[in-house]
Fold this protein.
Amino acid sequence: MKSLKNLNFEKIQNVGIRVDFNVPINKNFRITDKTRLDRSKETIDFIKNKQCNIFLISHFGRPKENFDEKYSFSKLIDQFEDMLELKLNFISYDSFLDSGLNEIDVDKSTISLLENIRFFEGEIKNDLKFSKSITDKLDLYVNEAFSASHRFHSSVNQMAKNILSAPGFNFEREILAINNIKKSPKKKLAIIGGSKVSTKIKTLLSLTSSCSDIFIGGAMANNFFKYNSINVSNSLIEEGTESMIEMIYNSAKSTNCKIHLPSDVILDSNENKLIDELPTSSDFKILDISVSSHAVLEKLIGNSDIVLWNGPMGMIEDNKYSKGSVNLAHLLAKSQADVVIGGGDTILAINMAEEKFENFYFVSTAGGAFLEALENKDLPGIQALMAD
Ligand code: 3PG
Ligand code: MG
């Protein structure tokens, strides 16, 4: 893999930078977290200072149609300009379709943002011809979208293979931090939350081999409670997870990894209940973890050298049920362990807790890619950069 810092820019004029501007927004299209923008800034500025023309390429959401205004960058570009403190030139869907990137004339040192790359069919099909319609115009392709590197898409897996390519600075740091943690023989704890077991089963299985302890929180824990014959009433449950949970327990048993579940929870009635004292009725929902669970977590964290955290401990989008995740953010920020955090909702918890990223060993911009990287998978985005 090449390093940006070592490249000779004499003959490089047009540079494509794959960024991940798939940012969270509210219903008024206001960006609610700019971490991904901030993390791309160093790479963009570096290339800009080399007097190159920059073409920013990113996806946004998962549009089903070829063009859907809801997913258009035209609605976000002003905010990108403010947040990145850069002037951006927009390449619309139509102008790209009419003339491709090759025909687009830019003045020297312009930064252009191409419309949502997922509007173009060739992107998710990882189509070679499509990828070339972009890279033919470029002299260098930089991938600064670590958080998308688990996707077999053209801008992730193909474009970097077509021409000279290198990872962006944040991309490099993400790989380094995750690899350092994976390689380390120190005692590890994984704290995994969120709602679905099925999307995290592979990661969980692989964590049973690398961690001494795994704490499961969030709605995901409801499935584990149910598996252990605890009445979870109307709590959010994912059907058909029994065999997955059995696999996780079996794997943990064989590797001597302990699985921990919350010892108390907050119900929709706002009551705090120990798990042993949950009502027998069928009209409650578990929505967060509470004090006794935090005591368990504090002890586990204190006994670990490395802590990985992904996924909220409760229904974080409702302030009433965000304390479990926010308190965990405080516990981790003050702990001596090397803490690595990944996932959009997990970053939200850090921000809600007003804890600084500097208080942790590393905060990843990635969710899915972070989990897949922990699984020892070869990520398509990394593969492509290695091929160059
Ligand atoms: C993410 O938010 O995890 C990345 O931007 C990838 O998005 P995707 O899950 O829609 O591929
Ligand atoms: Mg994702």
Remarks:
- The radius of gyration is 22 Å.
- The mean pLDDT is 95.
- Residues 367-368 surround magnesium ion (ligand 2) (CB under 6 Å).
